[in-house]
Amino acid sequence: MAFSDILKNKDSEGKEKHVPVIEISAGSGGADTISVIVGKEIAHPNTVEHHIAWLEVYGVKGDGQVVSLAKADFAPAYTSPKIQLKVVLDGFETIYATSYCNIHGLWENSVKV
Ligand SMILES: [Fe+2]
Questions:
Q1: 28 Cα–ligand 1 center, Å
Q2: 54 CA distance to ligand 1 centroid (A)?
């Protein structure tokens, strides 16, 4: 089984609560803001028994280089799966995000820069 076979995305059942939504807004000083939110449409449960455990954000440059931009672990019931980054996006073509639900597995999304 290929790694991509275990990733769930915008076409998968339960997508509204699990797919990381990526939003990019123009910033100042050469850095833009990337927001990644899980459960934007419908909030995901946030309990010890069922929660989003972590998010990761990657950028892919025009030459194919992959850059790990951020990783965040969440404490269920205390922190919500939403992060915001300041990123210099020059040279990046695509931003990917993955999120992990302790029950429903690994989810992904991407946006072109
Ligand atoms: Fe879940």
A1: 36
A2: 12
